[in-house]
């Protein structure tokens, strides 16, 4: 009828969404989510979708080859976020007049696992592979993420300026990483004799291909020898951040050092610096400095 909006299908919304977000850092994840939702709602009119249908269609079992099991609330929230973004963009195009209200799942507090310096030193000494030991030292010294570290080229390292210009970041935005003496010592040796485009970290023995993940056998073997439990590569970053907070680095500074996007992302480390909170307790006081204090009944009886 005259004045009525044409009906748009889920496939149309999916294609529009993927074209809009092509080239983004997490594009592969968006594609995976949209393919999943398209399997559920192909052929459906966008305006016919309800919140109950979407929530009932959420994945319940992981399809990942190495992560079989029940899908977490956090993963379900990511799937919901993708379809909600797609529907919001469809509403902006006037393809639908409202977006179903979707209920978020509870997500447990983020895990913070770290070890003291004496344990980390012993752990590093137990690693058999030289490239693993060097990469782990730089990870603890700088807080660089695994992908950032193994994607680092010689051209991105400035020994003179004590910094590394990281391009392969989680946020998709390049950032400068300050290098302390520990990191400089390793990197100075690692880049020696290499051309600008070569990777800083390779497996050695003539192998120049990019390392996509740490050697878990070497990592786990070192953990077992020292009795370290529930410790992963990313916990080297947690360890770096925890040490900073314990030694007085302000959270805002830590946020910049670690390349986090919001201050909320570093709040999980705040509890590690109770002394820095206690130091401000006397900023507001009134009784102990009063000259007109009267004795309490207990003091008079003493």
Describe the protein in words.
The chain is mostly helical and 302 residues long. Among the domains are: 10-92; 117-232, Intergrase catalytic core (hpI Integrase, Chain A, Orthogonal Bundle), CATH 1.10.443. It has 13 helices and 3 strands. The chain has helices at residues 10-21, 27-41, 51-56, 73-92, 117-126, 130-142, 146-150, 181-191, 216-226, 235-246, 251-258, 274-278, 297-301; strands spanning 157-158, 163-166, 175-178. It has a 3-stranded antiparallel β-sheet with strand order 1-2-3, with no helix packed on it. A hairpin with an 8-residue loop joins strand 2 and strand 3 (175-178). The radius of gyration is 26 Å and the shape is globular.
What are the SSEs and their pairings?
Layout: H1 10-21, H2 27-41, H3 51-56, H4 73-92, H5 117-126, H6 130-142, H7 146-150, E1 157-158, E2 163-166, E3 175-178, H8 181-191, H9 216-226, H10 235-246, H11 251-258, H12 274-278, H13 297-301
Antiparallel strand pairs: 1-2, 2-3
């Amino acid at each position: 009828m005259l004045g009525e909006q044409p009906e748009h299908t889920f496939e149309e919304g999916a294609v529009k969404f993927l074209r809009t977000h092509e080239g983004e850092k997490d594009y592969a994840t968006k594609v995976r989510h949209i393919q999943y939702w398209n399997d559920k709602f192909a052929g459906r009119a966008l305006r016919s979708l309800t919140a109950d249908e979407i929530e009932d269609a959420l994945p319940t079992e992981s399809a990942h080859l190495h992560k079989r099991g029940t899908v977490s609330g956090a993963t379900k929230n990511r799937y919901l976020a993708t379809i909600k973004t797609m529907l919001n963009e469809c509403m902006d195009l006037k393809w639908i007049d409202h977006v179903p209200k979707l209920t978020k799942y509870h997500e447990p507090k983020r895990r913070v696992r770290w070890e003291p310096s004496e344990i980390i030193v012993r752990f590093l000494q137990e690693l058999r592979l030289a490239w693993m030991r060097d990469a782990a030292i730089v990870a603890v010294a700088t807080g660089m993420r695994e992908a950032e570290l193994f994607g680092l080229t010689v051209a991105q390292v400035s020994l003179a300026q004590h910094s590394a210009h990281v391009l392969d970041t989680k946020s998709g935005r390049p950032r400068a990483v300050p290098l302390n003496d520990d990191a400089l010592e390793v990197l100075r040796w690692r880049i020696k004799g290499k051309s600008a485009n070569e990777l800083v970290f390779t497996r050695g023995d003539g192998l120049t291909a990019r390392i996509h993940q740490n050697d878990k056998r070497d990592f786990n073997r070192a953990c077992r020898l020292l009795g370290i439990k529930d410790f992963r590569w990313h916990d080297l970053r947690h360890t770096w951040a925890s040490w900073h907070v314990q030694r007085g680095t302000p959270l805002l500074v830590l946020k910049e050092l670690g390349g986090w996007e919001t201050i909320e992302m570093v709040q999980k480390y705040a509890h590690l610096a109770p002394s820095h909170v206690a130091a401000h307790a006397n900023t507001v006081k009134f009784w102990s400095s009063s000259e007109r204090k009267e004795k309490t009944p207990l003091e008079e009886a003493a």
